Amino acid sequence: MPAPFSVEAWLFLGALIVLGPLCVLYTLSVHQTNNQAVHDLKLRVSHLKSEYARRVREAREAANAHIEESGEGDVDVIEDEASDRKAA
How much is the pTM? Predict the structure, then answer.
């Protein structure tokens, strides 16, 4: 008949039995925390993209309204003296 396990062996097996599931649970919780953080970041990026698109749209509308209020949308070309000297 084989000899029973020593006290150290039983302690080691008990530690494995306790720590094994704890390690698995820890790994799962870290994974879930990471997934939640990624999901929150994706929501934040989506919100920022829509906010940016709204701001760009408002800026374009404001620019178009300014052009319509000022009359023509043409640009006045002003020639400087240096270009006049080169032409002469």
Answer: 0.56
Q: Are 67 and 73 in contact (CB under 8 A)?
A: yes
Please check whether residue 73 lies inside any domain of the structure: no
50-87 residue pLDDT tens: 999 999 999 998 888 776 666 555 666 667 666 666 65
Answer whether 41's CB lies under 8 Å from 33's CB.
no
- Owning domain of residue 44: 27-62
CA distance 37 to 44: 10
72 torsion bin: left (phi>0), alpha (psi -120 to 50), beta (else): beta
